[in-house]
Every structure is written in C-alpha cells, then in structure tokens.
Write a sequence for this structure.
C-alpha cells in the first residue's frame, strides 16, 4: 500500500564552491515512513538532509540545483519563505544542542518565535511535547532548571521535544544517537517508532544496525551519489548493487 | 626512504620539514659522539635559551610592579577623603581632584554610550550577516586602521570636526565623541570574539525551529554572548578613561572653577591633570604628592576595571568548558 | 506574510551593514578633516621644504616650518624602542605559548594585559619623575629626558601588543606539526626555532609592525619624556621632539587657523600616513601569507 509522497527531490545537485557535494539526487519520501540515509562519512548524506530545510542557505559560496518539493511545492522557489519551511520541516542534530536556557524555555522557544503569546497554551504545548518525547516523567519537577544540567540522552530527547513543539510535518534527524550511550540510543529509537505515526521522518545514520532497526526505507549514498534505495528489509538482505553489498557487509574503505 | 614517509605524513606547504630533519641527522652522524652526551648538550642549550625566554616574560611583570610600586609608595599619603572629594585650591597646589574624577567618569561613560551600540551592531553585521568578500575585507581594513590611528590624531580630528565644524566647542560632549570613535574598534573586537564563541548549533537549532534571523540573534545569540560583550565594554571604558591626547584639545582644560553642569561644559580630567601638574603647573616640585596621588587614582580606576574584566572573563571561560 | 518577513530580514541586513560602515566613515572623516585643516600650510611652504626642512621655529618671525627634525625624532625613538620591544615581546610570546605551564600562563597573560592597560600618561609620568633622574645620576648626562628614556618607556607600551598578537599566532600552529618534529627526535627548542617560529612568522611580523605603529603614534610618553628639542639628535642621549609631541604641546598655543595651526595639522597628516602605511603592510602580510591552521588576524 503506497502512501502519499511528502517530500520529493528531483535531480538535486549541491555545490560547495566548485566542489560538487551532491550529484543528481532523485528521491521520494512517503508520509509516515522512516527513511534512513546511510553511507560512509563524506558521502553527502548530511548535506542532503540539510538541503531539505534549507539549512545550507547559511553556507557562503554554496549553490543548489534541481528541485525539492514539500507537498508538491518547491521549497527553493523565490516566493517561498524559508522561515515557514523550517517550521514545517523540523531538525534534530547529531550533538544535543539545547539553548543555555531552562528546560521550559527551550521548548517554549519555537512557539514564542512563531508568535504564540498565550501562556497557558504554551505551558500545555510544552507538557505535550515533553510527553511525546518520553521525557516528561524525568523532568516535570524541574522544568525551570537549566537544560544544560540534563544528561546527554535527556538533552537529545529535549531537542526532539523542542522540534515537536513547533508541530513540524517532517522531522530530519542527523545521526541523532551518535553522541549517546546504548541505553539512551535505545530510548530514542523507540521514540522514533512512535513518532512515525504522526510524522514523516528522515534519519541520517552511519550505524547500519540502527538503520535496519528503525527505518522502513533505506537509501545508500556514496561519493555524493545516490547508489541504491529500497525497502530496508530488501536492501539489507538482497542489495542489487555490488557497492551496496560491500558497504553493508563491511567490506568497504 | 624515511624522508618520503615524513613528507606524506606532514604535508603543510610552508615548512620543509624533511630537509631540516635531514640536517639534524647529518650533524649527528658527522660528530657521532655518544648519543647521551650530545643529547645533554642540546638539552643544556635549550635550558639556557628557555631561561632567557622566561626572563623576558617576567620583565613585563617586573616593569608593571615597579611602576605600580612607585606610584603607590609616593602616592598613598596623598589619598585622603579631602583629596577625593574637593576641588583644587590655590592655583592647584592644594586641595583635591574631585572635578577630575567627575570629568573622567563623564568622558568614559559618554564614550561608551556612543561606542557600545555602534560596536555591537557592527560586530553583529560582521559575524552574523556579512558573507566573505571584498566588502567585508574593506570593512575589516577600516576597523584595523581605525584601531591604529594615533591618539593625537584623534585629538586633531575631534578638534576640527566636533569642536569647530559642529560648533560644540571644547566640551564634555566633543571629548566623549572623540573617545567614542577611538574606543569603537575595541568594542567591535571584543563583541565579535564573544559572538564567535556562540556555538553555531544554537543558531541552527533556533532557525530550525522556524525563528527568523533577527529573532535568533536577539533571543539566542546575544544573550549567550552578553557576558563577553560586557567584558569588552569594561575594557573600552578603561581605555577611554586613561587617554590623554584625544581630550587635550577637545574637552579638558587646566582648571575649571566649577563642576560641569551640562555636556557642553569644558571639564577637568585625571590624565590631563597629571600632565598639567607634572609639566606646566606653577610649582612642579611642590605638587609632586598631588601628581602621584592623581596617578594612583587613575591607575586604580583603570587597572581595577581591567582586572575585573579579566577575572570575569576567566570565570566565563571556565564555565563554557 | 512570507514576503514581508523576507523584506524585513533584508532590511535588517542593510541596517546592520550601514552601522558596520561607521568605522570606515570615521576613518574617512579623519582623513578629510586632517587634510582640510592641514593642506593650507602648503600655500606658505612647499611640501619638500615642509618635510625636509631642518628648522622648526613655528613662532619666530618669519617662522620656519620644517618638520624633518620631528620626523627623525619619531623614527629614532620608534626604531630604538623596537630594538627593545621586539626581542622582549616575541620571547615573552614564545614563553607564554610554548614553554610556560598552564598555571603560570594564567598569571603572566593578565600581567601583560594590565601592562597594556596602563594609561600612557602614567608611563610618561613614571619616565619623567623616576627614570629620568636615575639616568641623569647614573650616566652623568645633562638631562634624563632624552631619546633613550623615551624609547625605553615606549618599548614597554608596545611589548604587550607584540606579545599578545605573536602569542596568538604561535599558539595556533597546529599541534600535529609540532608533534611531527618532536617525534623525529628534535628537542623542544629545535622544534620552536625550526618549526613553530617559521610557521607563525606572518603573525609575528604583523605583531611587530602593529607594535611599531603603536610606538610611532604614542603621544604622552614622548611628550613628557623625550625632552622636546626640535633638532636632529646626535646621540641617543640627546633630547628629541617626535611628531606627536610637537602636535600635543603646541596645539593649545597655536592661533586658530593660523599658519602654525595648519602646520600642526599637516604634521598630523604625515603621522597618519606613516601609521597607515604600517597598518597596510601588516594587513597585507596577514592576508597574503595566511598561516596554516587557524591563525588569527
């Protein structure tokens, strides 16, 4: 049963100056699926992820060609407001990056900058987001303590809660567990399973077991090119290409 | 064989490590004394040279101590309550320095009020908005050159522009504006450093949550950088408080019978007072204690501000780690 | 809604850009007003006579406006102070960046910063009332207010500049470069001399030039300590009258928009040009020979 397409990239190229970091990527992301992007470091998977909420706009001398559609609308079209795109496409980075503010303020931040002023509404949103990120129980008694006092795993779940509070449609995760211990990693993975009921999730990981555990679809990147994409089960058991097989079996680099 | 391996390991262009290492090896082979004795000779040379390096660094400390020692030893007796709270009397041979303290505080506060907002906004442009290129380089060139303009040239500029062209006359306002122009690069430098120290992930997180650039700057970047920026502000105040040449023609006078009542009044200032008493007073030798006392007050003010900034910054750095 | 936000964002960009140009604007206005008030002197004397004329008697009748002795005074005190401040500053920087333990570094660095923060008038005062009588007695010379004394005081004003910028440059030499040398059996000293210093030479040169630029522009020290004689000195124990000292001392007495006034502004132009050249050279070195790693400046 095919679900509607949430995001589509058509012949996407990305350049840092003269260096072509991504070459002709065409890829489709179905709604309420988890797609994993795998590949060796430097293969362009993170660059690709950062194209999807226009985070690469911040890099000087960078340039993108091709189109990237969100619900059929090109997010790089000149009339599109980048700020709106970023609140529709949330992002969680590799290293937990809470602001040096309280736990509450961290989560309220996205609401406040998007113009929510009603205090009770903010408070209930904060609670809901923390519950969804499976963090509420651990922090409900110290919402006004600094977020920097949380453990690494808690901080990462806080960052997820912070992203969820804005109610994005797509959630991008750039190696969200690489700085965490196995137990924290397991919690985040369980969380991803629950979140995909509501969101379209795209996750970059270098950990193939993780990709196999959490994703429905896996795309393999190498040297800025999309090599192979398939259902995760299929890709890991019957890869079509030799390159993919070499990578997933560890005979690579 | 070995050299090629070194070359691939260290491929930094400007230094030809390989040839240098060869040279060391050759000398070793030519003389070929027992390895241990040569090692100790090289170690001995190193010890001697390091001794001199260490000496050079300590000369700075000794110089600072000597200057402070002489000012304190000769000046502390002059520091009395009267000295700090009264105006000079009897053609400045007696009495206190209150008008000078007030004038210096007024000048440095005025300077910082001018320089602080412009400095922070400039730093925000340089660090948050500007993209690398010719314009950015030009602005940096301007800031670096402004930082290098001699203080007496600032004085000339202040005289020609603020006092004469804008008809402010010799006044607190003209002096504060001149000092503000001079402090600007200090503030920009400190603010930029503080902004650079804010991790990029904060900006990404904020933008990723749908905040605009301006919201990101005012709600996340500036609050995080604020302590560092304030440190720069303190350093700016102390710089402005200690300068003499820029205010000689623009704000300060030998003697003023009354306290300044508006920003258009001429003022007395601590550094200029020292200069006047030491070089052009009516009784230079007899007023030595007053000169030392004034110098001591100025040093205490300037070094106190600096020390506060340094200690605060050290605490900040520790907390950041 | 989308478009207003974009317009607002672009508007802020322009706003901050305008403020950021303040520094250049001020620099530009400084040059405009210096030239406006200084150029009229060249109706009275030629540029050549002004710069190379060896008599500075601005108040005699007829006046002489030759600033050659002042230029020589500035150059001599700057070079002499550099002879002290360069070795002292660079050696301190090497010590701080390479040799000192962290604890000591954390004490000595603030000391250097405090030295930089000392008001110039205090250093001038110190040179005048402490160092000058001392030199006079020990060396048995007519006056302790001379080139030697002024250079020494100036040196202590430029050491912190040289030291802190050099230290940044030395500190940012990549560790793996040093380790490569150490691992090949070079001693720490050999590593410093053959690897670290060559790698940071551009930063150190910048530091030296900026230090010298600070010395040539410094006013209060030379005003109070150099002795004030407007003649070409014959020995380092002669008094001199560097350009900033001349401007600072005479501006108060020069009649407004008289020839003397114009001449002092023109002296300011010469000083400004000197410093400007120094800064451009420093900028050029820093830009062209950018250091490996993350050198500052």
């Amino acid at each position: 049963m095919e679900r509607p397409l949430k995001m589509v990239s058509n012949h996407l190229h990305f350049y840092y100056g003269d260096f072509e970091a991504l070459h002709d990527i065409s890829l489709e992301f179905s709604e309420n699926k988890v797609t994993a992007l795998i590949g060796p470091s430097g293969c362009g998977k993170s660059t690709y992820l950062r194209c999807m909420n226009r985070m690469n706009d911040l890099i000087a001398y960078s340039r993108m060609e091709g189109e990237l559609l969100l619900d059929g609308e090109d997010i790089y079209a000149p009339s599109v407001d980048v700020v709106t795109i970023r609140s529709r496409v949330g992002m969680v980075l590799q290293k937990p990056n809470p602001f040096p503010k309280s736990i509450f303020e961290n989560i309220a931040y996205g609401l406040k900058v998007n113009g929510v002023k009603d205090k009770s509404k903010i408070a209930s949103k904060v609670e809901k987001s923390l519950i969804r990120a499976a963090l509420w129980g651990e922090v409900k008694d110290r919402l006004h303590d600094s977020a920097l006092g949380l453990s690494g795993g808690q901080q990462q779940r806080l960052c997820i809660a912070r992203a969820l509070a804005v109610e994005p449609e797509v959630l991008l995760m750039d190696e969200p567990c690489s700085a965490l211990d196995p137990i924290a990693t397991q919690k985040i993975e369980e969380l991803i399973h629950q979140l995909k009921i509501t969101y379209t999730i795209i996750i970059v990981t270098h950990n193939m077991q993780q990709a196999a555990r959490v994703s429905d679809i896996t795309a393999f990147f190498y040297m800025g090119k999309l090599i192979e994409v398939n259902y995760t089960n299929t890709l890991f058991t019957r890869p079509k290409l030799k390159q993919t097989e070499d990578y997933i079996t560890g005979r690579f680099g | 064989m070995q050299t090629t391996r070194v070359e691939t390991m260290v491929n930094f262009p400007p230094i030809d490590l390989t040839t240098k290492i060869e040279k060391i090896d050759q000398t070793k082979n030519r003389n070929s004394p027992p390895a241990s004795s040569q090692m100790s000779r090289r170690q001995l040379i190193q010890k001697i040279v390091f001794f001199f390096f260490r000496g050079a660094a300590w000369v700075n400390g000794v110089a600072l101590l000597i200057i402070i020692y002489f000012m304190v030893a000769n000046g502390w007796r002059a520091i009395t309550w009267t000295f700090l709270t009264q105006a000079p009397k009897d053609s400045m041979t007696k009495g206190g320095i209150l008008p000078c303290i007030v004038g210096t505080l007024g000048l440095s506060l005025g300077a910082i009020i001018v320089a602080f907002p412009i400095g922070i906004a400039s730093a925000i442009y340089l660090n948050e908005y500007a993209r690398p290129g010719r314009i950015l380089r030009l602005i940096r060139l301007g800031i670096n050159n402004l930082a290098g303009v001699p203080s007496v040239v600032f004085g000339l500029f202040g005289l020609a522009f603020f006092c004469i062209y804008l008809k402010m006359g010799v006044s607190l306002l003209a002096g504060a504006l001149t000092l503000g122009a001079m402090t600007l690069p200090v503030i920009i430098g400190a603010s930029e450093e503080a902004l650079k120290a804010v991790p990029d992930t904060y900006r990404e997180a904020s933008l990723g949550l749908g905040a605009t650039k301006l919201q990101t700057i005012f709600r996340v970047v500036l609050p995080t950088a604020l302590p560092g920026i304030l440190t720069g502000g303190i350093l700016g105040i102390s710089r402005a408080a200690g300068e003499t040449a820029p205010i000689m023609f623009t704000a300060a006078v030998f003697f003023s019978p009354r306290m300044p009542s508006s920003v258009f009044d001429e003022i007395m200032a601590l550094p200029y007072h020292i200069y006047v008493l030491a070089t052009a007073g009516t009784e230079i030798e007899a007023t030595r204690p007053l000169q030392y006392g004034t110098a001591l007050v100025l040093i205490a003010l300037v070094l106190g501000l600096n020390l506060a900034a340094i200690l605060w910054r050290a605490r900040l750095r520790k907390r950041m780690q | 809604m989308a478009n207003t936000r974009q317009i607002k964002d672009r508007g802020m960009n322009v706003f901050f850009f305008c403020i950021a140009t303040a520094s250049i604007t001020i620099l530009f206005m400084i040059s405009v007003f210096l030239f406006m008030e200084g150029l009229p002197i060249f109706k009275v004397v030629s540029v050549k006579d002004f710069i190379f004329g060896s008599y500075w008697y601005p108040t005699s009748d007829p006046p002489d406006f030759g600033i050659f002795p002042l230029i020589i005074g500035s150059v001599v005190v700057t070079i002499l102070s550099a002879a002290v401040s360069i070795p002292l500053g660079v050696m301190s920087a090497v010590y701080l960046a390479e040799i000192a333990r962290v604890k000591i570094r954390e004490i000595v660095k603030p000391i250097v910063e405090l030295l930089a923060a000392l008001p110039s008038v205090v250093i001038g005062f110190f040179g005048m009332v402490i160092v000058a009588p001392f030199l006079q007695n020990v060396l048995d010379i007519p006056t302790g207010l001379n080139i030697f004394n002024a250079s020494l005081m100036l040196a202590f004003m430029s050491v912190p500049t040289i030291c802190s910028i050099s230290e940044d440059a030395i500190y940012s030499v990549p560790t793996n470069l040093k380790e490569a040398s150490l691992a090949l059996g070079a001693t720490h000293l050999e590593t410093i001399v053959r690897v670290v210093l060559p790698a940071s030479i551009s930063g150190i040169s910048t530091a030296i030039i900026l230090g010298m630029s600070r010395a040539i522009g410094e006013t209060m020290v030379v005003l109070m300590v150099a002795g004030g004689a407007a003649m070409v000195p014959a020995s380092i124990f002669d008094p001199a009258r560097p350009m900033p000292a001349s401007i600072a001392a005479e501006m108060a007495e020069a009649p407004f928009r008289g020839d003397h006034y114009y001449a002092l502004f023109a002296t300011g132009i010469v000083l400004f040009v000197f410093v400007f050249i120094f800064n451009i050279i420093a900028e050029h070195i820093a830009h062209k020979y950018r250091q490996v790693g993350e050198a500052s400046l």
